[in-house]
UniProtKB/TrEMBL annotation:
Residues 40-67 are annotated as: Disordered. Residues 1-24 form the signal peptide. Coiled coil: none annotated. Keywords: Hydrolase, Nuclease, Signal. Residues 40-62 have a biased composition (Low complexity). InterPro entries: N1-like, Ribonuclease/ribotoxin. The keyword Metal-binding does not apply. The keyword Nuclease applies. Pfam families: Ribonuclease. This is Guanine-specific ribonuclease N1 and T1. It comes from the Bacteria.
C-alpha cells in the first residue's frame, strides 16, 4: 500500500489547521486603523480623494460599515432625498427590496426599500443603491446587491 495518499491527506489537514490557528487572532496586535478614500481605494491608491483616518465605524448588522460622509456625493444626495421624502428621479425608487440575496438581516417582506444612486457616465440606473429599513437602518451597495455595507450616520 502506498503512503502517498495518506501523506497528502495529512498535509492538507495540517495546512487547514494551521490556517485556522493563524486567523484566530491568538494574541496578535490589534490592527491599525485603515485609511480609506471616498471611492473605497486604499490610501496608497488615492489620487487626491478625501481620506478618513479614524478607526472603522461599527454597526449593528454585522456587515461591513461605511460612514455616510465617506459615501460618494451622489449617494449623499440620495440620502438627502430619502430624508425629505422625495421627489425621486427614478420610478422604482422607494420600491420594496426583497433581500433575495439574503445578505441583509432577514426581515419580513416590505421591511426594506431601495433607492437608486446615480452613477456618473451610466445611461441607465447603474449598479449603486441605498436600501433602507423600517427601523432606520441604511445599507449601501455599489455592485447591484453583490455586497452591502451598513451606513453609519451621525445619529447612529
Amino acid at each position: 500500500m502506498s503512503l502517498r495518499p495518506l501523506r497528502v491527506l495529512l498535509a492538507l489537514v495540517l495546512s487547514v489547521f494551521l490556517a485556522g490557528c493563524s486567523s484566530a487572532g491568538g494574541g496578535a496586535a490589534p490592527a491599525a486603523p485603515v485609511r480609506t478614500t471616498v471611492t473605497g481605494q486604499s490610501a496608497g491608491d488615492a489620487t487626491g480623494d478625501a481620506t478618513a483616518e479614524a478607526a472603522a465605524p461599527t454597526g449593528t448588522s454585522g456587515l461591513p460599515t461605511v460612514r455616510a460622509a465617506d459615501l460618494p456625493p451622489e449617494a449623499r444626495r440620495t440620502l438627502a432625498l430619502i430624508a425629505r421624502g422625495g421627489p425621486y428621479p427614478y420610478a422604482k425608487d422607494g420600491a420594496v427590496f426583497s433581500n433575495f440575496e439574503r445578505i441583509l438581516p432577514r426581515k419580513e417582506r416590505g421591511h426594506y426599500r431601495e433607492y437608486t444612486v446615480k452613477t456618473p457616465g451610466e445611461r441607465d440606473r447603474g449598479a449603486r443603491r441605498i436600501v433602507t429599513g423600517r427601523n432606520g437602518e441604511i445599507y449601501w451597495t455599489d455592485d447591484h446587491y453583490e455586497s452591502f455595507r451598513e451606513v453609519i450616520t451621525d445619529e447612529n
